[in-house]
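Researcher: Good morning. I'm working through a list of sequences from a screen, and I'd like to move beyond sequence-only analysis. For each chain I'm collecting a predicted structure so we can compare shapes side by side. This is the next one on the list. No need for commentary yet; just the structure.
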Amino acid sequence: MTSEAGVYLVWDKQLFARLSAALLNPTLQPLLILPCESRDEAALVEEYLARLLANTYQRMLRQRHEETVQQLNELLQK
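Model: Good morning. Structure tokens for this chain:
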């Protein structure tokens, strides 16, 4: 898969798992525990959360290659 900038995006299972756990946490996403009025409303919530997860994952993969992000990651590893 490639991004619009032509940067190859790879599947990072660990990143996706951590991101899913964080973004799909009911304390951070009250939409997960609020009752829906209909199946259509539930589908909209599901679509919103799926797009949020996918877009965040792709953005994080692209940003990995930015110098500032690499420097911050190095600082965190010390």
